[in-house]
Amino acid sequence: MRPRLRRLRPYLLALGPGLLAASAGNDAAAAASATYASAGASYGYGLLWAMVLVSIFVGVVQEIGARMGR
Question: What are 19-69's pLDDT values in tens digits?
Fold first, then answer.
């Protein structure tokens, strides 16, 4: 299992800051919590595929921003 983790490490390191930046926008305000709870109750796991897609796009945008800043 260690060799596989070593191969994945560079990708995880590249995605880490992008995922954290995307999560920073999800504040714990009452309106956001109510909205997320309502959406979860309405759709369940039906939109879970979108989370994977959005996470990939967030990583790409973070990478572009890092390259522009460099």
Answer: 666 666 666 666 677 777 788 888 888 888 888 888 888 888 888 888 888
Reading the block at residue 12, the tokens are: 């995880």
Whether the CB-CB separation of 22 and 58 falls below 8 Å is answered with yes
Report d(CA 22, CA 31) in Å as an integer. Answer: 18
Is-contact 17 61, C-beta < 8 A?
no
To the question of pTM greater than 0.70 for the whole model, the response is: no
Residue 55 CB contacts under 8 Å (≥ 6 apart), including other chains: 15, 19, 22
What is the distance between the alpha carbons of residues 2 and 32, in angstroms, rounded to a whole number? 39
